[in-house]
Amino acid sequence: MSQNDDIVSLDRQLCFSVYNAAHAFTAAYKPLLEPFGLTYPQYLVLLALWEKDGVSVKDLAERLHLDSGTLTPLLKRLQTAGYLSRERDPQDERLLRIELTEKGQSLRGPVSAARKSIVCALGGSEAPIQKLREDIEAIIPLLRGMSGRRADASPDEGSDAAEPRCL
Questions:
Q1: pLDDT value at position 2?
Q2: In Å, how far are 85, 94, 137 from 91, measured between CA atoms?
Q3: 72: part of which helix (H) or strand (E)?
Q4: Residues 62, 67, 70, 74: is their CA dihedral positive or negative?
């Protein structure tokens, strides 16, 4: 059996390709965001806030699928840079609201050039990018639904390893 025929070969793993693509995106965005003093995760925070400003830290964490231990340092650095403010909600002191400052709002136009550069690098057409994004988005809930499931340690005798038994 050649390495490419082995179902557990690294090169056959979708997860590895997605992992590598995530790293490639981060690396591609890095020089595009550096002039603004932004990291890729900070850029994602700004994208979410440009979409919906004045949200709670909890809502922002849910939107970005980040825990507060990861998000809080990002928000602090963005606040120090003058891009956002963090204030207690007057209606509910337990909530910390995040709002873009004028400086944070003003980044939207200049930073959008970064995305345009990425689109150009990927062929210049929005349609295939959105199709790929939709395909990836479709698998996310399927994978999230696997939380807590264990892999079957011993496959059925005589089962075809290339065709998993789905529950």
A1: 60
A2: 17, 9, 35
A3: helix 68-80
A4: positive
Q: Contact at 8 Å (CB) between 40 and 30?
A: yes
DSSP single-letter state for residue 122: T
Q: How far apart are the first and last CA of the chain?
A: 28
* Helical ranges in the chain per DSSP H: 14-33, 40-51, 57-64, 68-80, 102-106, 108-121, 126-144
Residues in the chain, how many? 167
Q: What pLDDT, in 10s, does the model give residues 49-92?
A: 999 999 999 999 999 999 989 999 999 999 999 999 999 988 88
Q: Which residues pair with 85 in a beta bridge?
A: 99
Do the beta carbons of residue 58 and residue 101 sit within 8 Å? no
Q: What is the DSSP letter of 153?
A: S
Question: What pTM, to 2 d.p., does this model score?
Answer: 0.83
Q: What is the residue extent of each domain of the chain?
A: 9-142
Q: Hey, what CATH topology would domain 9-142 get?
A: Arc Repressor Mutant, subunit A (1.10.10)
Asked whether the beta carbons of 119 and 107 are under 8 A apart, the reply is no
Instruction: Answer yes or no: are the C-beta atoms of 43 and 33 closer than 8 Å.
Output: yes
DSSP structure string for 11-45: GG-HHHHHHHHHHHHHHHHHHHHGGGT--HHHHHH
